[in-house]
Amino acid sequence: MKRIQNIMRNDAGINGDAQRIEQIVWVLFLKIYDAKEEMWELYYDDYKSIIPAGLKWRDWAVDKKDGEALTGDNLLDFVNNNLFPTLKELEIDEKTPMSQVIVKQAFEDANNYQKDGILLRQVVNVIDEIDFTENEERHEFGTIYESFLKDLQSAGNAGEFYTPRAVTDFMVEVIKPVLGEKIGDFACGTGGFLISALSTLEKQIGNSLENKEIYNNSVYGIEKKALPHMLCVTNMLLHDIDDPDIIHGNGLETDYKDLRKMGKFDVILMNPPYGGSEKDSVKVNFPTEFRSSETADLFMNVIMYRLKKNGRCGVIIPDGFLFGIDNAKTNIKKKLFNEFNLHTVIRLPHSVFAPYTSITTNILFFDNTKPTEETWFYRVDMPEGYKNFSKTRPMKLEHFESTMAWWENREEIEVDGFPKAKRYTIAEIEDLKYNIDLCGIPYEEEVILDPLDLIHLYQEKRASLNTEIDYVLEEIASMLGGNKDE
Asked: Which residue has the higher pLDDT, 344 or 360?
């Protein structure tokens, strides 16, 4: 990866980390897909590729050292005027298997940013050195790929697509997915949750071919943006998911009447985008009382529609959802508490998602077994010796060790007279008008937020305060005998 980065630094077409990553990914995807096709050709006598002759990796990318390999302007002309236009226009229908649909989806919004054909040839040659047909080499590359995805966190807005591995692994560890369960993520980014879940399921396969087939069909994702979608599909292929059910689309663009009829999931693991504002054409997909302009709120609706009876969910939500008591947030929380069992809220320390965002987040764990009777809140404090998490000092799984110990043996904890872990009954939560900003940091912390994050936080707090003021005024008016005219 370092060699590729050094080559790309000399190409005038590559501008910044996000373009560099996107460029590496389409080249990498074609190489990995070609290795998969070699295996499929061995397994299936009647295998027919969706990629036309002459466009497969083996046809144009492999340098046989005979002086015939495409390079310079010839390579650029082939990639820009033949390879990309053809793959973008591949014909697919409802009978096309997902293993082939992903090729078209991967290239729909992809671009070739390199302008120097000689440097592009050098990049292709470096990637061609990896043998993805070898199990060990493929798995080793999986680790490199993970660190490559981590780079996304500092690549401008691309950071929103990456959830730190420590967080996804912790959530999977307490949710405990089992082979045979269907696991979904409706804003899957680069596939972090799905990969963490697959790592757990992989240990349950054994030598059974039937279990291997179940594993191959166990995860489902939707991703709106092209770059993370391609990163996720590539990630799935690296983890031996031959038919990745990863849809390129918007998980919020389905009407709730249709959502109710769609397949439901045993396990949902998500870090929905937040701080975004959805347009009216998306909001109208939800009942009036649940319509919010905050993306994360709308995804909570989707989760509640699609969680199977007895299913389990872990979802990362910003502080605004906890303290917000505007109509939509209150109604969503009422539904959550009245129809689902919200058993645990884990308060995460600030800067977990730095440098992408400084907004403080929480993990909600609930299941579709019964209405909530009580909810535990637990605060994960910043580890000893840390002031902030950063790219060089990220959150690690070991930072959840005390949380894991508490999870198995719950008790109320006080630190300096303030609750760190506490159980609240549903009656207490109702008395708080569903403001569940509980067991948070008891003192003011100086956290310098990105200006847009700060504006968003103030907007959420203002909406919440306005609702609270309206509520108090209504109570006073009713005490005074109804309407103000009296």
From this structure: 344
CB atoms closer than 10 angstroms to residue 243: 15
pLDDT the model gives residue 450: 62
* pLDDT tens-digit series, residues 359-390: 889 999 999 999 999 999 999 999 998 888 87
Residues 54 and 172 reside in one and the same domain: no
pLDDT at 419 exceeding the cut of 50: yes
Please give the residue range of the domain that contains residue 278. Answer: 164-187+251-472
DSSP code of 52? P
Measure the CA–CA gap between 254 and 299, rounded to whole angstroms: 11
User: What is the pTM for the complete model shown?
Assistant: 0.83
Q: Which residues neighbour 172 within 8 Å (Cβ) at sequence distance 6 or greater?
A: 193, 196, 197, 199, 200, 269
Q: How many CB atoms lie within 10 A of CB 394?
A: 18
Predicted pLDDT of residue 94: 85
The pLDDT-based confidence of 485 (bands split at 50, 70, 90) is very low
66 and 172 inside one domain: no
For residue 270, the SS3 value is strand
Whether residue 63 sits in one domain with residue 172: no
CA separation for the pair 75, 67 (Å, rounded): 13
Provide the pLDDT for residue 355. Answer: 66
Q: How many CA atoms lie within 13 A of 193 on its CB side?
A: 30
Q: How far apart are CA 263 and CA 254, in angstroms?
A: 13
Write the CATH number for 270.
3.40.50.150
Interaxial angle between packed helices 295-306 and 327-339, expressed in degrees from 0 to 180 and rounded to the nearest 10: 20
Residue 483: inside a domain: no
CA distance 352 to 345: 16
Contacts of 378 (CB under 8 A, 6+ apart): 344, 345, 346, 347, 403, 406, 420, 421, 439
Please write the tens of the pLDDT for every residue from 137-150. Answer: 777 777 777 777 77
Q: Which two tokens stand for residue 465?
A: 């305060």
